[in-house]
Amino acid sequence: MSLQQATQASDNCSDIKPHIGPEFYQETAIDMEQSRTFLLSVVTNSDGDIVYIHTDYAGLEKLSSIIDRLKEELRRGNSDHDHLFSEEWGGDDLTLSMLETEQQENCRQVHHVKIYSWTDEWIEKHRL
Is the pTM of this model over 0.90? Predict the structure, then answer.
């Protein structure tokens, strides 16, 4: 099944079980990028109601550095945001991979993640 086929809309992804043993993931993980230096892939079920994040240590470090920078801006009293893009969308922050079961259940690959950090003032202003 191609990535394009896997990202077509369907309502079947809500059946994914949240806890499956590591042996399952070793057997069914599908990596769309052969030469990646980290794993940071975001997938949603077909409705977008559930988000799955697949990562390795380097991917967690990348995400952690973004969060640390946003936390520092908040400490200084500034709201801020950051973007993560897949290569298909002009970036190199997100990798393209999902579990075989996610492909079979028509989950969707996320190509753009936007992380906001809000001060209390801006939380109130935006009614968040």
Answer: no
